[in-house]
Amino acid sequence: MPELPSHQNSELEKLERLAQRMDRAFRVPLVGVRVGWDSIAGLMPGIGDALALAPAGYILYRGFRMGASAPVLARMAANIGIDTLIGSIPLAGDLFDVAWKANTRNTALLRRRFEGNGRKGEPLPKRLGQRKFSSLTAPRELRLSPAWAGNRGPQRKPTRGRHHPLGRPL
């Protein structure tokens, strides 16, 4: 796991503590499920979900201030939206709140995003070995290479005057 700068690591730890209080602060004795203040506040119809939205919005805002990318912020907002929308349904939404844990999901997204940036300095073959690979997730360096550019779109006719030494199209 790559080391994060101390200011990012301390900010992520603060956000993870907030998410832990909101999603997993207490353990239900007989069932063994962990619930937090988000689930408890959700028991109050209407106002509980609005109160739980504030810490979730704060985690989203801090992720924006820390420099999270737009796709990560969009996924975080979707997690919050799902939690708020389904959590507003009486009883079924309260059960959903216990299982969904949007704040924990969002802090995990932030941590993965910033730890993934720590690998940018590693060589391309090492980074390719650490993640799944497909044409959709190809690293930027590979997509910009001439070999990759030739694989996209319709096949082009080779220009006249330029020939490959082995007789292959350029």
Describe this protein's structure.
There is one protein chain. With 170 residues, this protein is an all-alpha fold. It has a domain at 6-116. 59% of the residues lie in helices and 2% in strands. The chain has 9 helices and 2 strands; from the N terminus they run αββαααααααα. It has helices at residues 6-24, 37-41, 47-66, 70-87, 92-100, 102-117, 124-129, 140-143, 146-149, and strands at residues 26-27, 34-35. Strand 1 and strand 2 form a beta hairpin. Helix 1 runs antiparallel to helix 3 (47-66), helix 4 (70-87) runs antiparallel to helix 5 and helix 4 (70-87) packs antiparallel against helix 6 (102-117). The chain is elongated and about 75 Å long. The mean pLDDT is 78.
Could you name the ranges where pLDDT drops below 50 across 5 or more consecutive residues? none
Biggest sheet statistics: 2 strands, antiparallel
Order of helices and strands: HEEHHHHHHHH
What is the chains' assembly state? single chain
What's the end-to-end separation, in Å?
41 Å
Class by helix and strand content? Answer: mainly alpha
Q: How many β-strands, per DSSP?
A: 2
Q: What is the arithmetic mean of pLDDT?
A: 78
Indicate the percent of residues in helices: 55-70%
Which strand order spans the largest sheet, edge to edge or round the barrel? 1-2
Cα gyration radius (Å): 23 Å
Strand content: under 5%
Number of helices: 9
- The gross shape turns out to be elongated
